[in-house]
Structure formats: structure tokens, C-alpha cells
Amino acid sequence: MIEFHSREFVEAMHNEQLRLHGGAAGLRDEDALESALGRPLNKHAYEAPDLYELAAAYLYKIVKNHPFIDGNKRTGFAAADLFLYFNGLSLEATNEDVILLITMVAAGEIDEDGAAAFFRDFTVKI
């Protein structure tokens, strides 16, 4: 069974990112957060995605929807990374590769499929 994130978990993860790295606290757009968290669930319900595509949906939608005042890129990546981990996969990318991925997603230079390809290339089963 696939383990998806609850809203409470993502908000706690976001708060931890702010505690560790700084930034303004708060939710900017509740609907944007609900949309971002619904994307992986909808993909799972109506398509046949693999875990990499579902992780990419978390990353892409949190980064692009910008639901929080600050820390969206960090939270989006943490959501994707922990989704993979909770589902038996470990991300083995360098910090530089991760920063490049997140920057490219935020700039619109890579789409959800590209992010999924990144996760396929840089994960191992645990």
C-alpha cells in the first residue's frame, strides 16, 4: 500500500524546514496547498503512476502552487524525498543535483515528468 502524506504532516514538515533554515511562517493560500496535496492522490486514483511520478507530483505542485509564505521549494523537495523513503526508496543524489532540480522546477525549466525522471535516476530500494 502506498503511503501518502497528510496535510498535518506536510505542515509540520514545512515548520521544521523553517525552524532549521529560516523564513517567514504561515500559509499563503489554503486552496493551493489542498491542490498540491491532492495531485498525487488524483494521479494514483485515475492514472497508473509509479512512485517516482507521485513524488514528482508532490515536488512540482508544492513548488509551483506556492501555498506557503516561504519555504515552498524546501517543503516540496522534503515532501517528495520523504514520500519516496516512506515507500521503500532512498534518494541518492548530491546536494548540487537536488538544488539544480528544485531550481529548474521553480523556473519552469523542467516539468513533472522531468522531475519523475530525476527520481528514477537517483533512487535505490531500501
From TrEMBL:
GO molecular function: kinase activity
One Pfam family linked to the record: Fic
Stretch forming the signal peptide: none
UniProt domain Fido: residue ranges: 5-121
Highest taxon listed in the record's lineage: Bacteria
PANTHER family for this protein: HOMOLOGY TO DEATH-ON-CURING PROTEIN OF PHAGE P1 (PTHR39426:SF1)
Name used for this protein in its record: Death-on-curing protein
InterPro entries with a match to the protein in the record: Doc (IPR006440), Fido (IPR003812), Fido-like_dom_sf (IPR036597), Type_II_TA_Toxin (IPR053737)
